[in-house]
């Protein structure tokens, strides 16, 4: 397979800033077909990125030339769109969180297994150079075993990032977002901890609330805008996690890993994205790449990894089962 045509379902901000430009830059992708219920939105992206539009989702399913699909729909339809795409013979890159419940995510994994197609989930933090370098350090055991960790992900909220720049955003709606900031930002960091530590979070104690955000009618939003959790992994590591839509200053996307012989600080410093501090006082600074933020859109590497898995028939870098294990932790956080 030398080149592929891809479809994108849902033409909001995640498509405009991440999926579409990264497919357009990928040498193996020769056409993007956009579908959105709002035809003006899909046409605008087709004009911007040099693709074409599908007038209906059935047109996209029934096009034998479309090999793969990005599911960029809102959370509550992932299990329907991704499962249908797989059963129609398409490989799928699904946005996170995988689904609004573990039960629905399991339906998607069943569809993937029965179809024999690839399912990858957009947990993009695995692809950042600082996180990959930190994983190398942890795996090498040069700093000894990991004991504890803390991780944060917060910014000013999706109403500043979404396509309409409005408090009417679907992220604030219980029936569409389901999990609020936990599913928007938190699930990224759950996946990251699983990846970095080669471990799994098994015990969760959590506080959450809608502390500040208001919807378009001036009422408190129906989902959480802040979550603070205490976590324990299968291998006995202890950690804390904070996720927020109310960090009204610069974005925080930092993680600290405390080992027996030193500390790894990831995305604490704008210049040195990874700082290694050893027990005996040595400091090693890595200048790798800035973290992608809503204000600084850079290539995530996710699209390239997805296309590479299709072209070279490899297992995707983030499988449905990986995403399911993160979703199980997310459900515990929301209990």
UniProtKB/TrEMBL annotation:
Single GO molecular function: nucleotide binding
InterPro entries: Gfo/Idh/MocA-like_OxRdtase_N, Gfo/Idh/MocA_Oxidoreductases, GFO_IDH_MocA-like_dom, NAD(P)-bd_dom_sf
SUPFAM superfamilies the record matches: Glyceraldehyde-3-phosphate dehydrogenase-like, C-terminal domain, NAD(P)-binding Rossmann-fold domains
Classification via PANTHER family: BILIVERDIN REDUCTASE A
Domain GFO/IDH/MocA-like oxidoreductase as annotated: residue spans: 131-264
Domain of life: Bacteria
Domain Gfo/Idh/MocA-like oxidoreductase N-terminal: start-end pairs: 4-123
Descriptive protein name: Predicted dehydrogenase
């Amino acid at each position: 397979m030398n080149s592929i045509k891809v479809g994108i379902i849902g033409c909001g901000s995640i498509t405009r800033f991440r999926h579409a430009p990264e497919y357009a830059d990928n040498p193996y992708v020769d056409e993007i077909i956009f579908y959105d219920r709002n035809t003006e939105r899909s046409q605008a992206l087709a004009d911007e990125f040099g693709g074409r539009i599908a007038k209906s989702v059935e047109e996209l399913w029934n096009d034998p030339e479309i090999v793969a699909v990005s599911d960029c729909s809102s959370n509550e339809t992932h299990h329907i769109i991704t499962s249908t795409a797989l059963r129609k013979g398409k490989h799928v890159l699904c946005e996170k969180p995988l689904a609004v419940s573990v039960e629905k995510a399991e339906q998607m994994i069943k569809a993937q297994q029965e179809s024999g197609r690839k399912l990858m989930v957009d947990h993009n933090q695995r692809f950042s150079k600082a996180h990959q370098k930190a994983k190398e350090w942890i795996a090498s055991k040069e700093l000894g075993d990991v004991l504890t960790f803390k991780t944060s992900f917060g910014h000013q909220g999706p109403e500043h990032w979404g396509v309409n720049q409005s408090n009417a955003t679907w992220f604030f709606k219980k029936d569409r977002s389901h999990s609020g900031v936990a599913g928007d930002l938190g699930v990224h960091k759950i996946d990251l901890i699983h990846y970095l530590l080669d471990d799994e979070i098994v015990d969760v104690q959590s506080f959450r609330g809608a502390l500040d955000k208001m919807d378009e009618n001036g009422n408190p939003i129906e989902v959480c805008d802040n979550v603070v959790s205490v976590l324990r992994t299968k291998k006995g590591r202890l950690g804390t996690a904070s996720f927020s839509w109310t960090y009204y200053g610069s974005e925080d996307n930092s993680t600290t890993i405390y080992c027996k012989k030193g500390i790894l600080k990831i995305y604490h410093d704008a210049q040195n994205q990874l700082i290694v501090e050893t027990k005996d006082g040595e400091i090693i600074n890595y200048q790798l790449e800035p973290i992608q933020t809503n204000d600084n859109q850079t290539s995530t590497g996710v699209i390239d990894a997805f296309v590479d898995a299709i072209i070279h028939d490899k297992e995707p870098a983030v499988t449905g089962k990986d995403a399911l294990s993160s979703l199980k932790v997310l459900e515990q956080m929301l209990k």
